[in-house]
């Protein structure tokens, strides 16, 4: 007699389908979770809205300024605020705020440079302050905006000499913008800036959420391209500083747990020019160098500015 084949249990045929279904569900859940993380970090009103509270804005509020406007290629209206020096000068410092900040929240830095005798132009980056925008540019999307502000500054004063200054995200923005800087940018000062957006986000994922960067950053990069219309993975000072010849002063606190101090050393090494300085402030946390060492901070930044600004007097202004 010939033995008949026994049919395979249905359970064995069902398991592959179950596993595939579970994987699909997990992928969907993971994608949704990363989407919420992306919005938390990139969207206006997300994590950024919780930063930099209770800041002294007295100088900004009581000092007259001009409000400048630019229209971006993607249709946003951005604002900047121009503070004229007490004595006529061609020297202007462009002061760029950090993540969660605004021109108003940079009041103490504006006052410092204004007291040094400079004009100050303080932009509100897209999504911050009085500027429009839905997604944060982390300095990379903002670099063309910053270059345009300096173009407007040169139209306002054809004899202008420009110094760039930024804190945290604003410092990274300055470092990303250097290849686009006009010829009359004499120097740049970057206080606690990161090297790449990816490296900073990876650090925050690890410290804040105890999560790995892979595959979260790769998926978030897709969301960034779709919704914010830029690729944050391209942002890296290895590229933007490699050919830089503009004098650069890097400042960072040695106890920075938000933008790690290692980024300062990496940015310093990434800079291809010889005219560069590095100051690691002992005991300073994130963006605390000025508050911890106010006199030395003012002296060092002013000395660096005066070293590279044209020593000619300002009598040529407007001529």
TrEMBL record:
GO terms for molecular function: hydrolase activity. Pfam families: Hydrolase_4 (PF12146). The keyword Transmembrane applies. The chain crosses the membrane at residues 18-38. SUPFAM superfamilies: alpha/beta-Hydrolases. Residues 88-230 form the Serine aminopeptidase S33 domain. Keywords: Hydrolase, Membrane, Transmembrane, Transmembrane helix. PANTHER family: ALPHA/BETA-HYDROLASE, ALPHA_BETA HYDROLASE FOLD-1 DOMAIN-CONTAINING PROTEIN. This is Alpha/beta hydrolase. It comes from Fructilactobacillus myrtifloralis.
